[in-house]
Design brief:
23 strands
Length: about 325
């Protein structure tokens, strides 16, 4: 994979040295324990990197804006850190229109994306003029990020975000194109397991919270209190399923919730983060380039554990010219 350096105006300067080391961590969500949505590269001083420059791989999502430097006198190398395009999208906040409780949209995904990106980052992100053919409809959570908000809307339409750097014509700056594409489900044709000689790491975590006491507005006996419970299939409802030694309870304090719906919606998100889960990590062949949001399946023959989940984390590492890409999926049960 080839990486290009660009100056502060996004004009290409040249190809990154093959001696440089790279570690880029992409995550589906703006706030996700599975990934950091940033990157780092280790280079020598003669690479000529400065604050505000860019690094990108054309046609891929790997890249970012360079804004952080670590230097140790014990080494001749420089370690630069950068925000990926996803991290930048995760720093755009969708605010409700004045006088309204929520931002509501309905239309083609590209039309919605273009509206949300208007006036942001001086046109750095672009959206294809051609309609995606994917309709999204609904309301965003209050003050959510553009990344998380669009992820949720697109997921309900079996679609995902596609982010890629696009080189400009001669004398033009590169740009980052954000579009909506259908999710690809690889589970029917490919199943990763020991049979494929794939390195799998599977965790079946069953110590999570399954009963969340949500505290809303009010004081003392007037306090709004609602109970949420994880069900047998992993969904969240208001009827208790786990009891006795299997019940694990926590409290969620949200005094600023404006009403019961907001308290319950926020409580569900909190409980999903605290609940039990199954996690799959794997390294796959370079022949198949998987995208965040696509669906894969993995099976551990020893334990019999089978997972069919979307990819939420993708990590690229390049060291001494050797390139590896690893993926992680995580879902709640």
């Amino acid at each position: 994979m080839e990486f290009i350096l660009a100056d502060q105006d996004r004009m290409e300067l040249g190809i990154l040295s093959a001696a440089a080391s790279l570690d880029i961590d992409l995550s589906r969500d703006a706030e996700n324990a599975e990934g950091t949505n940033d990157g780092q590269m280790t280079v020598t001083a003669d690479e000529g990197i400065e604050y505000g420059m860019y690094i990108f791989s054309p046609g891929s999502e790997f890249g970012g804006r360079i804004l952080d430097l670590k230097r140790s006198t014990a080494s001749e190398s420089l370690v630069w850190y950068f925000d990926t395009w996803r991290r930048m999208l995760g720093q755009i906040i969708i605010e409700p229109p004045e006088g309204e409780a929520y931002k509501t949209v309905n239309g083609d995904a590209h039309t919605v994306l273009a509206e949300l990106l208007t006036g942001r980052y001086e046109g750095f992100f672009t959206v294809p003029e051609k309609l995606s053919g994917i309709t999204v409809s609904g309301q965003f959570n209050r003050y959510t990020t553009l990344l998380d908000g669009m992820n949720k809307l697109l997921e309900s339409s079996s679609a995902r975000l596609q982010i890629q750097a696009v080189q400009g014509d001669i004398g033009e700056a590169f740009r980052v194109e954000v579009s909506a594409v259908p999710i690809t489900d690889y589970s029917a044709e490919i199943e990763y397991s020991q049979d494929n000689k794939i390195d799998l790491t599977i965790r079946d975590y069953r110590r999570g919270i399954n009963h969340l006491i949500c505290l809303g507005t009010g004081e003392l006996t007037e306090r709004m209190v609602r109970h949420l419970y994880v069900q047998a299939d992993g969904s969240i409802g208001m009827v208790q399923y786990y009891t006795g030694l299997d019940e694990r309870t926590a409290v969620y304090d949200y005094p600023n919730a404006e009403d019961e719906n907001e308290l319950l919606e926020s409580g569900k998100e909190q409980l999903q983060e605290l609940a039990s889960y199954q996690k799959l990590e794997l390294s796959v062949s370079d022949e198949l380039d998987l995208a965040i949001g696509d669906i894969i399946a993995g099976r551990d023959r020893l334990t019999g554990l089978y997972l069919k989940k979307p990819i939420v984390n993708k990590v690229l590492k390049i060291k001494k010219g050797k390139e590896t890409i690893s993926y992680k999926v995580e879902g709640d049960n």
